[in-house]
Amino acid sequence: MKLRCMKNTLLRFLTAGVLFGTLISSPAANITVKGSDTLVILAQKWAELYMAAHPGTKIQVTGGGSGVGFAALQNRATDLANASRSIKADEVAECIKSFGKRPSEYKVALDGLSVYVNAESPLKELTMEQLAMIFTGKIKNWKSVGGPDAPITVYSRENSSGTYEFFKEHVLGGKDFVSRAQTMPGTAALLQAVSKDKNGIGYGGAAYGAGAKALAIKKSDDSPAISANEETVVGGTYPIWRYLFVYVNPAVDKGEVSAYLNWMRSDAGQAVVKDIGYYPLPKPFRSDSK
């Protein structure tokens, strides 16, 4: 009887020790992700798949725009800041003021920033110069670029959007969007508006094309019209390609946060990029290659 009690006590002790050791070695992790609306659908899918494989990890993803993500990073209100543009010098300065270091930058995907028109539009292509003239208001009628005799409705993103800033810099040459442009709160909302407006035009990430038509883009009048696809974006021949980024405070870049960032850039994470509709990183940028 006494021996049986000793065995039971020892069993309870060992069981408690194993459970306690498990808690010590596998703590629950909560990761917050905020920023680019372009990256939201990809970030949500990444989070869903990673949490399924790592039940102890909880990942919360919200959008709002790249600028919102950088502000949250500066205020230590997010672990990861998603961005569809590079961080600006003043944003770096605010991060250094907040946590003493420049944030670490990770390239996580490639995007062919697409120009969308209504699915019924007869247009198939535009030049970069024509795009600049349409979005700055110099061209107001579709007839001027080979379309029907109808006024052009310009749809744009809010100025906290990295896509807005990238398009303004790389397509408009830094000039302001036409004042009559209708500002949409996200890429999905912009695409929905264009899909319902036969005279509409807008821009957004390659993964958001449902319901509208992406135009082929020409660098100049005598250049070939190039459509966005994996070959043209990864090869750099599509005129409006870009990297998509995640930024992180170096002090947070450890443990499960670091593991998650590595997984995003692994072959498994990059397969999700392709499934969503963006383009995988070249091998040198993948975590598998390091």
Would you give an account of this structure?
- Helix content is 38%, strand content 22%.
- The chain is α/β, with parallel strands linked by helices.
- The strands form three sheets. The chain has a five-stranded mixed β-sheet. Strands 8-7-9-5-10 form a five-stranded mixed β-sheet. The chain has a two-stranded parallel ribbon with strand order 6-11.
- Helix 2 (40-53) crosses helix 10 (267-276) and helix 3 (66-74) runs parallel beside helix 4 (89-99).
- The longest helix is centred in the first third of the chain and has 24 residues, at 2-25.
- The radius of gyration is 24 Å and the shape is globular.
Describe the secondary-structure layout.
Elements: H1 2-25, E1 29-35, H2 40-53, E2 57-64, H3 66-74, E3 80-83, H4 89-99, E4 104-112, E5 114-118, E6 125-127, H5 128-135, E7 153-157, H6 162-170, E8 182-184, H7 187-196, E9 200-204, E10 212-214, E11 216-218, H8 230-234, E12 241-248, H9 255-264, H10 267-276
Parallel strand pairs: 1-2, 1-3, 6-11, 7-8, 7-9
Antiparallel strand pairs: 3-12, 4-12, 5-9, 5-10
Helix pairs in contact: 2-10, 3-4
In short:
38% of the residues lie in helices and 22% in strands. The protein is α/β, with parallel strands linked by helices. The protein has 2 domains: 129 residues, Periplasmic binding protein-like II (D-Maltodextrin-Binding Protein, domain 2); 114 residues, D-Maltodextrin-Binding Protein, domain 2, CATH 3.40.190.10.
